[in-house]
Amino acid sequence: MTHTRTLGFGTLAVHAAQEPDAHTGAVIPPLSLSTTFAQSAVGEHKGFEYSRSGNPNRDAFEKAVAALEKGEHGLAFASGSSATATILHMLPAGSHVVSVNDVYGGTYRYFTKVAALSKVDVSFVDLADPSNLRSALKDNTKLVWLETPTNPTLRLVDIAAVAEIAHEHGALLVVDNTFLSPYFQNPLTLGADIVVHSVTKYINGHSDVVMGVAV
Predict the structure, then answer these.
(1) How far apart are CA 134 and CA 153, in angstroms?
(2) Which of 20, 45, 95, 145, by CA, is between 20 and 30 Å from 130?
């Protein structure tokens, strides 16, 4: 769809990335069960070649969540933890990360038990007062990680204030928006660089899907 940022949330939730099928006119995208897509020549395809790298249904989901979060691109993952791991893998060895201290337990375990193996050091800081971030930043701080509200204690952090301090230092700001969902909060509009969700929780809402997404 075009002009998604001028449309209301309800309209985006129903229509974003739901264009009628160009071949059949179907208004609901059919399920794509194919693992492999035909190519007219080597490396020449219609946007999809193998479902590991993308398929029409995942593409539609990614575009829909990106629209709801007022972002440009979305990437779906097998879980929220997979999204977290992928973002941390963007950092070179020797990087430093500042995380809100009241972070989701699975994220805490990844930061302390897995990221450390890649020589990524994480400091956990009380960011209810954003000024605490200044003293925690180091020369090698590449990323600041927030949840707000936090899971499960629902503590709040001022995203815009943290974004300003992080960007002054040249660090990226990632916000886990799982607990509010795009309906109540769009961290990208407050200065975040990346938004992540455990789709398993509020976006899905029915305890029958495990998935993550980053925008």
Answers:
(1) 24
(2) 95
Condensed to tens digits (0 to 9), the pLDDT of residues 54-65 reads: 899 999 999 999
CA angle (47 as vertex; 21, 8 as ends), nearest 5: 55
Q: What is the DSSP letter of 44?
A: B
d(CA 2, CA 17): 10
**pTM (2 decimals)?**
0.90
| pLDDT, tens digit (0-9, with 9 covering 90-100), for 79-129 | 999 999 999 999 999 999 999 999 999 999 999 999 999 999 999 999 999
Enzyme catalytic residues: 52, 104, 176, 201
Strand order in the sheet with 141-147: 75-77, 212-214, 194-198, 172-176, 141-147, 96-100, 121-125
Identity of residue 18: Q
